Amino acid sequence: MRFSDLLHPTERGLYCPVADVYIDPVAPVPRALVTHGHADHARAGHGAVLATGQTLDIMALRYGADFTGARQVAGPDPVQINGVQFEFAPAGHVLGSAQIRLSHRGMTITVSGDYCRLPNPTCAEWQPLPAHVFVTEATFALPVFTHPDPMGEIGKLMTSLRAFPDRAHMVGAYALGKAQRVIALIRAAGWDAPIYIHGSLQALCAYHQEQGIDLGELRPATAETVTKAETAGQIVIAPPSAFNSPWMRRFADPVVGFASGWMQIRNRAKARGVELPMVISDHVDWPDLTRTIQELAPEETWITHGREDALMRWCEMTQRVGRPLRLVGYEDEAE
């Protein structure tokens, strides 16, 4: 039996024919295993979904309670499907995110989904799942991407708040994972004042708080009663899409910030009109990506979700077997 007999790419996503299940499929399928709740991995309309309880909750928040025909919570114990064993372990990416290891007839494959090895106060820490094949993302798979200490990046925001106490500080952060992590980092930096959040963040922030993650006092930034005077010198978190909407006009001379691994590329920050770029990523950077492969030492590394060519070249130079999966239909919601 070959590795590709256990798992291989299709137009709908990674498919395990033995168990007749897909992992993170991009179109509705009868049975799906989902690594986490970002829209490029978690879609509605599947016949059945197996995922962590938090991911299932997040999918219900985003897509409605009827997002799937049936659901099953992946717990600490492996799940058997048609003789294939599936194990879930934390990926360190966002709340509920998991890696999935398939085991069958002595053969193992770990699908990492999106993962991060930096400490994250809003989700469980990444855990290694050694296997014969490691399927890795390649979002930041270029040597130029070396992400700095997130607290140092939050320090830039604190410095700006002191320098411009009359200006609202608008921080762009994606709704699931990044927004809550940024809020938690701001709290860790000693900011005790209320933080204002865009309405699209409210349900997901409330869910994080229900899960025991302390985000401090959050106030809605969408009510008509929120004035320019009230938010002057305050922090407002919103999805990047909101920055190009009339909603922005309610804030006084805002300092525009954006928290993303892509802020390491100055042209991206300039193109977005970002005055305060903060390089905060929920993905592995190049050093952590290559370190993970070295530590896990898989027989084969399968590469997807990003810059496959550079990582393929690194595999060749280090005498490793690499394979680009070239899956289509995935976009980088998480950054």
UniProtKB/TrEMBL annotation:
Taxonomic superkingdom: Bacteria
GO molecular function per UniProt: RNA endonuclease activity
Alphabetized NCBIfam families for the sequence: Xnuc_lig_assoc (TIGR04122)
Protein name per UniProt: Putative mRNA 3-end processing factor
